[in-house]
Amino acid sequence: MNNCDLIIIGAGASGLLAAIHASESGLKVAVVEKMSSAGRKILITGKGRCNITNSSEIKDFIKEIYPDGRFLYPAFKKFFTYDILNLLENAGVEVILERGGRYFPKSEQASDIVDALYSKALKNGVEFYFNASVVSVFYQDHQVAGVDYILDKEKKRIIAPKVIICTGGKSYPGTGSDGDGYKLAEQAGHKIEKVFPALVPLVIKEDYGAQMQGLTLKNISAKLIVDGKKIAEEFGDLMFAHYGLSGPVILTISRKAVIALDNKSKVNVTIDFKPALDYNTLDKRLLRDLNENGKKKVENVFKLLLPQRAIEVFLQILHIEREKPANQISAKERKAIADLLKNFNCNIIGHRGFKEAVITAGGVSLDEVNPKTLESKILKGLYFAGEVLNLDANTGGYNLQIAFSTGWLAADSAVNS
């Protein structure tokens, strides 16, 4: 049995920031982590590059957050973009700003972020317990008293008056995020809002994905259609995979798609291959291309409009012979080509689940957590930070900043309570 001032459950982004701030403020801190090392999920963010944060102002930042970004005003006021960048710079990590206001380590190695944060926590005297699974937080007189955990098949206990739950959600369970934080919150009497995958690739009914697997479309428009009505539209990049659709625009609209699928609605994604051209302009271009290349096979004319791997799919859908001369394409066929370029339809029948979801939506109800301190309204000395809360955001560095900011605020509150 050990005694300390603060126990942090989870050594991810929020846990590491909480540990750094609390230890710098003089608290004796213990971090209990079920995996064998810290920051496992950080290592895979941004495809291994780690999209640290975003350059947006707070007012714009919260617009990217669900279900209510305003809950995070106190956290962002306490610790925001410039704070995490300064912390990393002081730890020797250079950062670069890329398109969309996204910050990355200049080395393009997420491991540099983990190493910097973990090293700083160690330097501050934080004690880490790895391969240790917390089974319960225990209380005395409605006040946190410590945690029980399992290490090497033996149950052990740490005594402390304050605990921050930083266990993450359920996405990428291989990194340790398997939903155990929700169980701890429920044991404390907290309500868990329904959890579901967000920022997740979508599965389509058609075999387009398999035929165009690996093809990335740049600067396209994707519309999410639910029961015949457009409910979202995003512009950017999209990637075909063997199961269907992925890439930034798909991940962004996936949250609403998952909800619609859960409601048994009919869900479609339509892709505009030529968003810069309205229908009439596109039709004129098609007419010009067909006339100027009249003796060429239509397959070769399509090379002026489409990536090679998309041509076969278009020919199949349009029922046009690949060797048909361009000057034999009828007005009706030309209209069908234009329609398909502007509205390439995919029937969405599922998603790739928590194993491939970037983030988890849902979590500990915000109604039962004080936004100014992130302390439980039910039990004194219990705090929440990061993905375990009912907060999630679009791609672009927003989710990591939520973790950093809430971890910092929870620790600050624990220090000053």
Describe it for me?
By secondary structure, the protein is α+β, with helices and mostly antiparallel strands. The protein folds into 2 domains: 2-196 and 362-416, FAD/NAD(P)-binding domain, CATH 3.50.50.60; 201-352, no CATH class. It contains 13 helices and 22 strands. The strands form 6 sheets. It has a 6-stranded antiparallel β-barrel. Strand 9 (133-140) and strand 10 (143-151) form a beta hairpin. It is elongated.
Looking at the structure, the CATH topology of the largest domain is: FAD/NAD(P)-binding domain
Which geometry do the CA atoms define? elongated
Q: Residue-averaged pLDDT, rounded?
A: 96
Strand elements, count: 22
Give the topology.
Elements: E1 2-3, E2 6-9, H1 13-24, E3 29-32, E4 53-54, H2 58-61, E5 65-66, H3 73-78, H4 81-90, E6 95-98, E7 102-105, H5 110-123, E8 127-129, E9 133-140, E10 143-151, E11 154-159, E12 163-165, H6 180-187, E13 192-198, E14 202-204, H7 208-211, E15 216-226, E16 229-241, E17 244-246, H8 248-262, E18 267-272, H9 279-292, H10 298-302, H11 308-318, H12 331-342, E19 344-351, E20 359-364, E21 382-384, E22 392-393, H13 398-416
Parallel strand pairs: 1-11, 2-3, 2-12, 3-8, 12-21
Antiparallel strand pairs: 4-7, 5-22, 6-7, 9-10, 10-11, 13-20, 14-17, 14-19, 15-16, 15-18, 16-17, 18-19
Helix pairs in contact: 1-5, 1-13, 9-12
